[in-house]
Design goal:
This protein is an alpha+beta fold. It contains 3 helices and 5 strands; from the N terminus they run βααββββα. Helix 1 runs antiparallel to helix 2.
Length: 97
């Protein structure tokens, strides 16, 4: 069984991120996606390492930075649920409503 699941919204986020980066550099887009996968696996093994950000979300979500993005996940789920992957420059509270 996979140690994590990626929601449909998070999958859409990953596609959007990869497409944006690939416009300039396909290899960079592949590296970033690989870094996300490594982060998902690490978080599944140690779900408590992420940060609570009550300023960004009302729910008990955790946040983990990867490059200029935030992996947003639910640490209590088995398998770990990746909720969103968003740029730190976006309006995250609005997107999580």
């Amino acid at each position: 069984m996979t140690p994590y699941v990626v929601t449909e919204l998070a999958e859409s986020d990953l596609i959007e991120i990869a497409s944006y980066i690939a416009e300039d550099n396909l290899a960079a887009a592949e590296r970033v996606l690989s870094d996300f996968k490594a982060a998902f696996e690490k978080l599944a093994q140690m779900p408590e390492i992420g940060h609570h950000r009550l300023d960004l979300a009302d729910e008990e979500l955790r946040f983990w930075p990867v490059h200029s993005y935030l992996v947003i996940y639910r640490p209590e789920t088995k398998p770990l649920q990746v909720v969103r992957v968003l740029s730190g420059y976006r309006d995250i509270p609005e997107l999580l409503r």
